[in-house]
Amino acid sequence: MRYDVHAHVVPTTLAQRLAADGGRCGVAASEADGRLRIAIGAGGPTPVRPDLLDIDTRLEAMDRAGIDVQLLSAWIGLTAYTLPDEQAVAWTRLFNETMAETVASRPDRFRGLATVPMQSGEAASAELEHAVRRLGLVGVQVATTVAGRELDDDAFAPFWATAERLRCIVVIHPDQVLPGRPQSRYVLSNFVGNAAETTIAAAHLVFGGVMERHPDLRVCLVHGGGYAPYQAARMDHGFAAEPRLTDRRITLEPSAYLRRFYFDTVTHSPEVTRFLLDFAGTDHVVLGTDYPFEMGETDPVGLVAGVPGLDEEGRRRILEDNLARLVAEVRHEEAAS
User: Fold this and answer.
1) Contact yes or no for 164/260 (Cβ under 8 A)
2) 21, 123, 235, 276: which one has the fewest Cβ atoms less than 10 Å from its Cβ?
3) Average pLDDT for 257-275
4) pLDDT above 70: residue 335
5) From CA 232, how far away is CA 66, in angstroms rounded?
6) Has residue 22 been placed in a domain?
7) Extended strands (E) in the chain
């Protein structure tokens, strides 16, 4: 079975659940011009793409692309990291319950990734535990930064420890891209900024020691890892040669930790994917589409088939085996002592 690690959704029952919430979670749903709109906190309502909600259209697209199973993750705009802690806890619980309901509507085609209240590392840890053990989700999606804080912030230590213990999948996805530097011209916030944002987040997880302290983390970087695999040698050189690097929290060169990440295939190029495979190995690259967005990959199987020098075993690992193994190894029950 072919698995897609990178596919976004707005759960089909979310609007109904928000209407019944009475504002307790700080997120509101409304409708205008026939489209669902969602407002987070004091922010204005943002329209939701219809294809994020439409299950039949999604299944048709999956069939066309040759995808058997999608790992559904939130539209990244719904992370709601600016909500107060209590509202964030209520919001993520509501969201994860609706995500589980969407997965249950087609358990043969979907698996689910949670969203968690990263405002608090302890709260994020507790919600991840609930989502995996009680709701049956297989992991979590987190943004590259949390209200201005980097992912190696000490406050997030409980979250990373729980993710490692559960052996669940952690997908890192850009959201607030390179704040402070406008990239509105030429859509550079997407074409360039998203990849740069992922690279910076990965570097923080490496240089901040998160990947060293938690060697069994299963972290996936979308969009082929941004620029991280292609600038790994620069990081290694800087780690060895740069005298201003006085805060050393790792014992190996950065590339050793970068190779512990998993990477999706949303590179838009068989040749670039070939480089990624040479860097990370065929056991650390997984299929991705970024459904339903325009910058996604509509022929992911064809892209993998076109990778120069990739044999049948390598293709099978990327299309099927790697992600199937990660899903199967998630600890939905307490591990035997």
Assistant:
1) no
2) 21
3) 98
4) no
5) 32
6) no
7) 3-9, 27-32, 35-40, 46-47, 69-74, 110-114, 139-143, 145-146, 149-150, 169-173, 218-221, 262-264, 285-286
241 C-beta neighbours (distance < 10 Å), count: 8
Average pLDDT, integer, range 186-214: 95
d(CA 180, CA 19): 35
Question: What confidence score (pLDDT) does residue 22 get?
Answer: 77
Give one word for 23, left, alpha or beta, with left for phi > 0 and alpha for psi -120 to 50.
left
Query: What pLDDT, on a 0 to 100 scale, did the predictor assign at position 214?
Result: 98
| Domain coverage including residue 268 | 3-11+53-328
Residue 255 lies in a domain: yes
Residue 337 confidence (pLDDT) above 50 = no
The answer to whether 110 and 125 have CB atoms below 8 angstroms apart is no
Please choose, from the candidates 331, 328, 324, the residue with its C-alpha nearest in 3D space to the C-alpha of residue 287: 324
Indicate the pTM of the whole model.
0.96
Taken as a whole, the chain contains a residue count of: 337
Phi first, then psi: give them for residue 289, nearest 5 degrees. -125, -25
pLDDT, mean over the chain: 95
Gyration radius of the chain's alpha carbons: 19
In this structure, the dihedral spanned by the alpha carbons of residues 84, 85, 87 and 91, taken in order and rounded to 10 degrees, is 120
* pLDDT band, residue 336 (cuts 50/70/90): very low
Give me the mean pLDDT over the 1-9 stretch: 97
Q: What is the CATH number of the domain that holds 114?
A: 3.20.20.140
326: nearest Cα among 170, 196, 176: 170
47 within domain boundaries: no
Give the model confidence (pLDDT) of 108-157 as tens digits. Answer: 999 999 999 999 999 999 999 999 999 999 999 999 999 999 999 999 99
Beta strands in 217-268 (DSSP E): 218-221, 262-264
CA distance 274 to 257: 20
